[in-house]
Amino acid sequence: MTPAPLGGTLPASGRGIFEQLADDSLDGIWACDGELRCLYWNAAMERLSGLPAARVIGYGIVEVLARVADGEVRAAIDEVLAGADGATSELGLRGAAEPRTVMRAQLLPVRGDAGEVVGVAATVRDATAEQRVRQELGETEARFRNMADAAPVLLWMSGTDGLCTFFNHTWLAFTGRTMAEECGDGWAAGVHAEDLAGCMATYLEAFGARRVFEMEYRLRRHDGAYRWVLDRGAPRYAPDGRFEGYIGSCVDITERRKHEVELRAAVEVRDDFLSVASHELGTPLTALKLHVEKLERMLAPARAPLDPEPFRVRAGLIQAEVARLDHLVGSLLDTTRLAVGGLPLRLERLELGPIVDRVVRELGPVAETAQCAVTLRNRPALCGRWDRERLEQALTNLLSNAFKYGAGRPVEVTVDGDGSAASVEVRDHGVGLPADQQELIFQRFGRAPHTRGFGGLGLGLWIARQSVEAMGGTIGVRSVPGEGATFEIVLRCDAT
Known about the structure:
The chain is an alpha+beta fold and 496 residues long. The protein is 42% helix and 24% strand. The chain has 14 helices and 18 strands. The protein is rod-shaped.
């Protein structure tokens, strides 16, 4: 390579100041004229390139740079010569040890006295460390995004203006929207209208105070369903302490909220039950206490012989109250058994007709007290493998309810079947039930609102259903308010 004649020069007025500043610069500085001949090569360029100025001045700058570095600089030079205010080019220093030295050149136009572009000057700086930092930051960013996209929770980030700049793949898959649609404040379109104002107020208040926040709101899923999410955000800072925005995560808590609602409802039911149970258990105990006190007064020293009849009547009343207590305690015990593993069954081959007949006869005094005339239509030879105690318990419950809610009116009991199935219907003509309450009464502690004044724990029909279904049968009700109710038990028969 031979030097070209110096056809162009820098203006004299600028050359002295330029050279004075450039000679002491830690950055490499070179300059060329409009024909790309090198006019200046400072000491820092000598150190960076390993070429002394004497071997560079007058030679084509593109060829000189090509000897010491890889990269495209001609396009940047042409851009500046064409009138651009500046251009940037990066060169990899040839022969540098690993990691490779990267030189960044910032090109500027050199203008003549009339303002015309007469050459190009450039500052060259070692950008290896900066590039390494950028590369490491890029790798860190890539790792973060990979981890964020693989995370099972919904992640988001916002900038210093409060607007969101990033959502992970899990978030986008949840909402079914693109990054562009969600960024900024686009994500707010998915928040339920009833929760949006509170959600934004919580976020903006925490953002202004630079503090951690938690909030719950409903977020629309890709299928249009709204899901409850727990959103927790925290401020994030640069290593130098500068505030850079917020980062947050959302977890779907719909099922948790559902369980919380169910738990609160269960607690309310429990409290209601305990209130009813205390009343129901207290009533017969109070009656027993009064009967015993009456007996004590009757047994007080008296001159005349005691008449045994009042004692027999009083003993009968005491026996009735004890039976009532026994029934209530039995219901509570059955509830406990069901809660811990179900009712034990003792299956044996039984005929349905005699069992129904026996229950009706045993409840005769109760029917008489309630002034209910009972009609029984029985069909013989309907047999199956059932639990006698549980079947009698269920029938007793149905008949007791008929006498309670249909007092003063007739009750019809019908046993029927075809050999493969048998049924028992208990029909009263009492208060009846609306359709929306007919399933409620079979639930644990379930009682129809308009029958609460009749007393009871709300367990009898629930236990009856559990018992009948455990024997492979069904129990249901048909009713019209004011016209009574018909309860039916259906059981499988056993032909052998």
